[in-house]
Amino acid sequence: MPKVLISDALSEQAVAIFRDRGIEVDFEPSLGKDPEKLAAVIGNYDGLAVRSATKVKPEILAQANGLKVIGRAGIGVDNIDIPAASAKGVVVMNTPFGNSITTAEHAIAMMFAVARRIPEASASTHEGKWEKSKFMGVEITGKTLGVIGCGNIGSVVATRAIGLKMKVIAYDPFLSAARARELGVEKVEEVEDLLARADFVTLHLPKTEKTANILSAARIAKMKPGARLINCARGGLVDEAAVAEALKEGRLAGAAFDVFAQEPPAADHPLMGLPNVVLTPHLGASTNEAQENVALQVAEQMADYLLHGAISNAINAPSVTAEEAPILKPWVRVCEVLGSFAGQLTENPIEAISIEYVGRVGELNLKPLTAALTAALLTPLMGEGAVNMVNAPILAKERGINISETRKDAQGAYGSYVRLSVRTEKQERSVAGTVFSDEKPRIIQVKGINLEAEPMPHMLYTTNTDEPGYIGAIGMRMGALGVNIATFALGRAEKGGEAIALLGVDEPISAEALAEIAALPQVRQAKSVNF
Q1: How far, in Å, CA of 277 to CA of 152, rounded?
Q2: Of the candidates 224, 251, 295, 415, which lies 20 to 30 Å from 34 by C-alpha distance?
Q3: Cis preceding-peptide flag for 264 (omega within 30 of 0)
Q4: Per the residue annotation, which of 282, 458, 477, 492 is the catalytic one?
Q5: d(Cα 371, Cα 14) in Å, to the nearest integer?
Q6: 251: Cβ–Cβ under 8 A, 6 or more apart, which residues?
Q7: Is 209 a catalytic residue?
Q8: Domains in the chain, start-ordered, CATH in brackets?
């Protein structure tokens, strides 16, 4: 009989789900705050159910010799060491949609609170004062709401705001024109355009390398005078000190923060004590309904896996059956490489993706392959942990991305391969890959240009003119930068035409080094890609 440990506070109904399905369960919510005790007992369990309090670190996983699955009741998996769990063969699941409505409603509530100065007025009245004229507010009807990030939560906020008779404009690089029309929002191409027009600005983005500090001091200075800012998404998206200065100078009329760069924020945090600033302790998911939903969902998912091998909402494992796994595994990796490669190079909103399965791969179960490819494609935008093989098709649909699959008979030099084509509003890019006899993936074509490259953790991709001396020039520049080239793959469309190169390197390429490479006269584009 499988045995599960619950080390955080989950509902009694979640405990009942395990027991009703024949799984032994120990409910020990205090263990989440005692890593030594947790490490001492974790070896006795097949499953571990957690919220955010339990920190599943490598030293705990080192003792988890029988552990098969970790279930996170909620979306964030920052408290779980995913690489360590993967190395241990432990499946990590989350519940990505259980908190969406609750978080969106909290953002709307924060917008109302800062518009009408409700917290300050309440505190004043509790003190026995009657300062009616002091707390003059503004209506939200007819105002413009700028939504930065119009995915799952952002789209809910947008539709709620439209119901409140607000005009909604949205910035999201992967929001298609069709999806924007469906939501009833106006899509803007630049963050600065949104900031200049919006009376209220709300963020709904994951924190990634691209979105960290997306509202920098420079961008905050470009916000519409008298605007109000709401952040219920992630700490680190906003320069909090710059917001405080803008409030003090009167350029912003108010702000509401549920998340902070460091949590809990220090007592001397720049936003503390400022008028018309609403601060809450990360309450976005804190409703009875949301807590119950994610608890029940994670219990169902873990039970299905432990009893039947079904994997749902997995962060680090494909959703396949035990019989399919050995056959699909190398092709899943090919799809992940193709999706990740295209996702890292795509900067414009994706309208559609088409996938060709050529030869024997077309005879396999394509659903996990397409899901793996889509998840890898969206991960550079949404961040690690926010997208997986189960929810990737849903997230793509929310963004209006059409996905098509085609099976074809074997053709060309390779008996079987996968080709991904990504269409944006400005261009179409394709990349193809296959599995060699060593069961490792190879990239065999980019933009219709043939080459053969084995993916490496760190790579440099360039498009360049086919001119004599390019190999020497880039080799010398990389050498001067102290970057060692491990592999070098080249291809060209025709003599003297467009050419591409994929270089495997031993360490990440810095932004400064990338800029120097891009400055070479033969180079049209230089990108760092990581697998």
Answers
A1: 26
A2: 295
A3: yes
A4: 282
A5: 28
A6: 221, 223, 225
A7: no
A8: 1-98+285-312 (3.40.50.720), 100-279 (3.40.50.720), 318-455 (3.30.1330.90), 457-531 (3.30.70.260)
Q: Are strands 350-358 and 277-279 parallel, antiparallel or unpaired?
A: unpaired
Distance of CA 319 to the CA centre of its chain: 19
Question: Tokens standing for 282?
Answer: 């990360």
Outline where DSSP puts E strands in 409-457: 417-424, 428-435, 441-446, 449-453
Q: Distance between CA atoms of 235 and 232, rounded to whole angstroms?
A: 8
Give the span between the Cα atoms of 452 and 47, in whole angstroms: 42
Kindly report whether the global pTM for this prediction surpasses the value 0.70.
Answer: no
Which one has a higher pLDDT value, 208 or 155? 155
428 is catalytic: no
Residue type, 232: C
Active-site entry in 36, 209, 263, 512: 263
The whole-number average pLDDT for the span 393-421 is 88
Q: How far apart are CA 470 and CA 503, in angstroms?
A: 13
- At 383, is the pLDDT very low, low, confident or very high (cuts 50, 70, 90)? confident
Question: Which of the pair, 364 or 384, is modelled with greater confidence?
Answer: 364
Which whole number is the average pLDDT over 359-375? 90
| CA-wise closest residue to 75 among 101, 100, 94 | 94
Half-sphere exposure of 269 (CA within 13 A, CB side): 19
Q: Does an H or E element contain 75, and which?
A: none
Are 163 and 140 spatial neighbours (Cβ–Cβ below 8 Å)? no
Identified catalytic residue from 51, 72, 117, 234: 234
Among 67-76, 285-294, 346-355, where is mean pLDDT lowest? 285-294
Element (H or E) spanning 128, and its range? none
Backbone angles phi, psi at 169, to 5 degrees: -115, 145
How many angstroms separate the CA atoms of 388 and 402, rounded? 18
Residue 47 · residue 267 · CB < 8 Å: no
106 noted as active-site residue: no
